[in-house]
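User: Structure tokens for this complex, please. No commentary.
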Amino acid sequence: MKINNIYKSILAFGVVTMLSVTSCTDNFEEINENPYGVSNEALTQDFNHLGGRIVQATQNIYSVTPAWLTQLQQNLIGDVFSGYMTPPTPFAGGVNNMNYALVNGWNGFPWSTAYQSVMFPLSVMDETAGEEFPQFSAWGKIIRVEAMHRVTDIYGPIIYSNFGQNPALYDSQEDVYKAFVSDLDEAITTLKNYTDFAGFTKFDLVYGGDVTKWIQFANSLKLRLAIRISEADATYAKTVGESALADAAGLIADNEGNFTLSESVGDHPLNTINNGWGDIRMSAEMESILSGYEDPRMAAYFEPATDASLGIEGQYKGIRMGVELTSKDVYVSHSPLTTFGGIQLMTSAEVAFLKAEAALRGWTGAGDAQANYETGVTLSMTQHGASTGAITAYLADNTKTPAPFVDAVNSDNDVLAGDPNLSTITIAWDAAADFETSLERIITQKWIAMYPDGQEAWSEFRRTGYPKVFPVVINNSGGKIDTDEQIKRINFVDAEFTTNPTGVQSGIDLLGGDDDGGTNLWWDVD
Amino acid sequence: MKKRILLLSFVMGMVLIAHAQTRTLTGKVTGADDGAALPGVNVSVKDTNTGTITDIDGNYKLEVSENDVVVYSYIGYKTQELNTGSRTVADIVLNTDTEQLEEVVVTALGISREKRSLTYATQEVEGEELTRVKDANFMNSLTGKAAGVFINRSGSGVGGSTRVILRGNSSTRGNNVLYVIDGVPMNNFSPSQPNDVWGQNATVAGASGTGGAGRDGGDGIANINPEDIESISVLKGASAAALYGSQAANGVVLITTKKGKAGKVSVSASSNFTTESVLLDPDLQYRYGQTATNSIDSWGGSVSAPNHVDSFFDTGRTWINTVSVSGGNESAQSYFSYANTDSKGIMPTNELTKHNVTYKQSLSLMDDKLKIDGGVSLIKQETQNRATSGMYFNPLTGLYFFPRGLNFDNYKNNYETFDADRNFSVQNWVSDIDVQQNPYWILNRNRNEDSRNRVIGNLGASFKITDDLSFRLRGNIDKSVDRYSQKVHASTQATLSDLNGRYVVENAEATQMYGDAFLTYNKTFDQISLSATLGSSITDNEVQTQFFDSKGGDDIRVDIGQGVEGLFYPNTFVLQNIAVGGSSLFNEGGSRSQLQSVFGSLNFGYNGMLFLDVTGRNDWSSTLPNDSFFYPSVGLTGIISEMVDIPVIDLLKVRGSYAQVGNGVNAYDVGSGSFNTIEPYGTVVTPEYRVEPGNVLKPEIQTSYEVGVEVELLDRRLSVDFAYYNTNTKDQRIPIVAPASQGGGFFYINGGEIVNKGIEMAITAVPLQLGDFSWTSTFNFTKNTNVIEKLSEDLAEGEFQLTAPGVNNYAMIIKEGSQFGDIYGQKFARHSNESIIVDADGRPQPSDQGLEYVGNPNPDYMWGWNNSFDYKGLTLGFLIDARIGGEVMSITEAMNDLYGVSGASADARDAGGVDIPAVLADGSNYSGLLPAQTFYTTVGGRAGITEHYVYSATNIRLRELSLGYSLPSSVMSKLGPIKSAKVSLVGRNIFFLKNDAPFDPDVSMSTGTGLQGVHVFGLPSTRSIGFNLSLTL
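Assistant:
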């Protein structure tokens, strides 16, 4: 009897155990919730669901981290093609972007970073911000335009108005630029109602929450876009430029207003690429122009070379793009870059040069071309610590020209005096000079001032042809990119052909040329 | 011995003479194995209740009548019957019950079954086979001993983990087998595996970050004390493992551990000592010097440099000492064991110590109706400077690259020099690039330590409700705590450390709780036997990690006067010294999942000749909270030799089975869309990996069938087991690149189908048996063919990267129609006549096709041949195993070539150039040899023309060799309490009979899924030679 009871109780226990196991899956949802992050719901506290997205997007206009991403997003594209910097490293067996063998594996990163880390978080923010927080949406628009104009300036047609669709058709570059302008106009209008709003402070990596400064940046950006398309659609460009110049909120006028990401978001990736990896060095053009001008900014931008065996120790020595690199050792001891603080994406000097060009083009409200030009030089010189005396002397100098370039290793790479690729442009403003000479003078100085943002400098080089960037010595594009015309764009990215084939085909149709590095962008009118 | 025989004859003589009616029978019971007295033996008169048990000395006394039959029974021994006749004294020698061990195998859920009734292939390996030539991770000892089992060791030396794959790779996520110990699935937790060619860490269970040195954190199975193992059965196919449902997709290795035995107390002790030395030296040159002063490579003129590499490696030594005690009576049995492993690796400063303590207790109550088992195992392991693979924090890069002609001893003895500016000693080395440092600096000033404390506890009860029906209940907890730290001193290369050094701490806690309950019913009706099981189980897995890294990533932060980055005070390694708020990485991660199941099985047998198995299991997984999944299997076995009488053949069995199992998705996959990560500096980041909106994830489903034949003939001296299998794994959970227009990143989808098919054959033979001499030989053969049958068209380029190339010219990629694990590399540009294209300087040109297929590391087939020659107490054993076919790549060679330190680069210089047919771009011949430096600096390096570094993976080696001697009883009897003693000389990895690769192709950089078949400065493979002494008291 006793035994029987034990049987029964054990049996009962077993059955209960089995049944209970099958009926307690109710907490599965809870178990399967990842606790090691933050949910969308939790983000709404302190408006992080809005501001948090702004922060992510701001940090990825030009990626703060990791440095290898920035290297592929910009350093091995615009920073090189602009004539700012050249890597001593023979990446990918020495056959790569630098000699026009475009590496698709690298060149998708400007695209993927923009969509994944700028467009996506901002669209998530727009969904939640809705009608309730128009100031955040407006802020997001400015950041989006700043980020995406850099993307269209690399590829041409891009996904912009159709973001979120699948498939997503591309917009032509003309349509994209017009959409940028209207987004900036909407943002400016909205933000003017929130100039006292303090809610940006916590999330603002650039202006510490000062809404007015964002409006000034938006106006400056609008002027940059207008100048960019001034040859492609002169009438529209003039309208846009003049509206920016006329806006009561004004433009960036001093170095305090420079669009520079606070160092608190992380060290400048160029410091890693340059100091840590030794993967980037001064370019031949920088050596030629800065040393030719005896420019006081030389020491602020570069360190002297260290190679005693080549006899260049203590000199500022650059590397030409597209030369033969047998090993990293050969050129790595050429001039490194100096150490950078915050990430600088627009300066007051650039705005002054934009106004100088606007004046040259006769746009209302631009002021005097010479005054703007000299303001631009002065602002840039001041930013980099030059003395007033040095600035005055520099501005008055009408004899110095970019110096010939002598390669310390291989004379095949020299650009000697008289070479058509060596400019003879001087510094001092010449009121009598023709449009083209004045334009070269403005753009050359703007090029020096915008350093190290090679993406913007490359765009301006393609638009104007200034300053004269030395053509590659080795061209591995297989005839797709003309050596003298230089690279015009980057072909559309691999991932689009598999994930959005209809879309990328629409982009190719809109491009008006082959999908390679030799096809001009819409605003790049020869 | 002679004495005993004499005594026995005398006693037997007495018995024959004696004649009585009712009398007292006395005697002594001893075991045949060691001649020792057996206490607690049941001695009873057959068909009566009369009985007794032997005393501590094995003596018994029993009243018997004439012609009574006395039965002697004892666990683990064959029951013996004795016709008493008229004797009054009967000394009995009981034989050990080996028959039972051969016939019965342990199957899923720990259910013992007759091997002949199984409908699928299983292979048993006895514990002794694993301990004969010991390895600190005993799974390595299984290499070559079972068909269908692919084993790769990690390159991290002693204590490293092992990659065990059964019947080919079937999943894009994990392919390692499920280990089941005494019926309970084990959590084979590995806190870390290298993730890329640099050698940085895999994402640590949800935590991001590079984590300092790329390390193999060891695995759970390596913790087990091999002396505790009774036997291993390998359940290769899904049919065998179907009862484990969604955990079983990769097959199961069932481990049965030793338990206490009733009766005599048995004490065993063993001591194993081995020395390890380099088996395969890297081929390096010492005759061409540094290129120029301050150069970091060696393309200079002739020098006569000493070989500084060979003397760098130490002779490793490993002691494994174990002791175990087992004993008890009919109602309570205990088992206790302790093992101590103490090892110094061939890499200077590398040490490992491990302690294993196991205690097990079994109780039989209520006339054996209720049995209670409990046990606990404690494991404590500490490792100093575990060897790393990859290029960061690896002493081997600097060691190999060291410019020839400079004085290495100067850097060895002065790996640091005093820096007056900083007032402490800083690194002294020839270069400042991320991929190399002073090897002695790394060993002494980049030290890493890891430790694991683990406890496994279990408790189970089984109750015999009736003779046919029993109920079993089990619970188990397995908890391991891993701690890892790396202390990187200031002046370590800047990619790897901040100005004041770097401190990395990682804590991982893995907990698995398991419980099951089931009813089993066994009944035989005339010719039909029936066995049924119905049960339920729950498994809860949780991993929690904490990760602190003062330098979160390989970005180099430069002192810009904006406050401190990394550590406040140099060379001070405590968490409060980390400058929080910079890009230091503090990360908490982990995962939790729960699996609940109901399962049942039915086994019918007809007349011992036909067997039918049906199983079913339904899983509910927390990772897919809204679904449940059913996994069926069915199998049929016919024993032809029972049905018809076939001459010569003792057993002819045919079997076939079909099964379906699954593999859930990962924890949190499903809800990933609303999850934001928090990055350094507090940035919240939108989800990068997520399920495509509107899509639903399913578990992977593996469908498999197998057929097999078993034959035993010539009085069972020859047996052959042959199997053919085909498994198809569908609905692989893979991430695909999400369209940029949807936010980029990755979507998880079900999108792949992988087929593995192959044959396995095991032949066991006793080719010679002459008197005391016997030769036993087993041969096994495995051939597996893998095809990626389908892969989602949504994948970029239709391919899935198991290891992404990053900035290196190595990738592991699968594509539709390809094989799992294909290696991609950069090829040469070739002219139509196959000559490589070079430029005017003789520089080879890379192909413009990007990375292309260059090889696959999986062997075409493998075999293992294990032999044992026994003569009296002497045993000679050897194991030769072979992996034929497949290709591997060596980034090590490529880097050594680039630096001009490889043997090949010197040979080419000796010969005046590289002799490879080459043409210029226009197709005209390049005249002469290709200049060595130009050739190797172009082709070499991690991003050169890696096609040049692909080697055949075919290798045949003498895997194990042992010579053992068991001391004869005549000697033993003089040794007092020692009952048996055996000494052996043992060796592992003795030499290659064939190997064309410059490294050991069996060593894998990672035991994860990626990085297979690539060698990136892994520790050279070692040969172990030593001795083993085992004693039984």
